Amino acid sequence: MADTVATNPDGHAHPGQDPNRRDFIHIAAAAAAVGGVAAVAWPLIDQMNPAGDTLALASIEFDLSKVQLGQQVVVKWRGKPVFVRYRTPKEIAEAVHDDHADLRDPQTDAQRTKPGKSQWLILVGVCTHLGCVPNFGQGDYGGWFCPCHGSVYDTSGRIRKGPAPKNLAVPDYAFLSDTKVKIG
């Protein structure tokens, strides 16, 4: 194929300087192809995002004024039970005292609570062994006892005995005010 050659007023030819119909068609076809690929790819990429109902469950707010000293409330978050416990000074003292005990999954009580709010313990209420829901107040350490396989947790939710490999999980949470917490 021959290149199109343009001539200047002086009569000399300069190859490749004349945009013609063929160049326009190539540019338009490339732009249409890019638009077509984007139109096909966007729904495929967008369907990988979480659904609206899942995003709605991503976080919950809970009113802490409903919980009395020494009481535990169970709320549901992402389909799992979450323990919101208003700990007594005795429970906090026991948890702090056990910070240096021989723990399978070492964490201090301060690492499991928010600074200045150590009376509030918020845990995912699922045993880390096989996923059962532990009961409060039945363990040897004043914390939780898993009835399925006998895992025992202390008043900070740390594993002390039994087959569970890890402490009860602490979800992401933030205090919105003195009486409101946002979990997730």
UniProtKB/TrEMBL annotation:
Residues 89-182 form the Rieske domain. Keywords: 2Fe-2S, Cell membrane, Disulfide bond, Electron transport, Iron, Iron-sulfur, Membrane, Metal-binding, Translocase, Transmembrane, Transmembrane helix, Transport. InterPro entries: Rieske_2Fe-2S, Rieske_2Fe-2S_sf, Rieske_Fe-S_prot, Rieske_Fe-S_prot_C, TAT_signal, TAT_signal_bac_arc, Ubiq_cytC_Rdtase_Fe-S_su_TAT, Ubiquinol_cyt_c_Rdtase_Fe-S-su. The keyword Secreted does not apply. GO terms for molecular function: 2 iron, 2 sulfur cluster binding; metal ion binding; quinol-cytochrome-c reductase activity. GO terms for cellular component: plasma membrane. Pfam families: Rieske, UCR_Fe-S_N. It is found in: Cell membrane. Residues 11-20 have a biased composition (Basic and acidic residues). Component of the ubiquinol-cytochrome c reductase complex (complex III or cytochrome b-c1 complex), which is a respiratory chain that generates an electrochemical potential coupled to ATP synthesis. PANTHER family: CYTOCHROME B-C1 COMPLEX SUBUNIT RIESKE, MITOCHONDRIAL. The main subunits of complex b-c1 are: cytochrome b, cytochrome c1 and the Rieske protein. This is Ubiquinol-cytochrome c reductase iron-sulfur subunit. It comes from Phenylobacterium montanum.
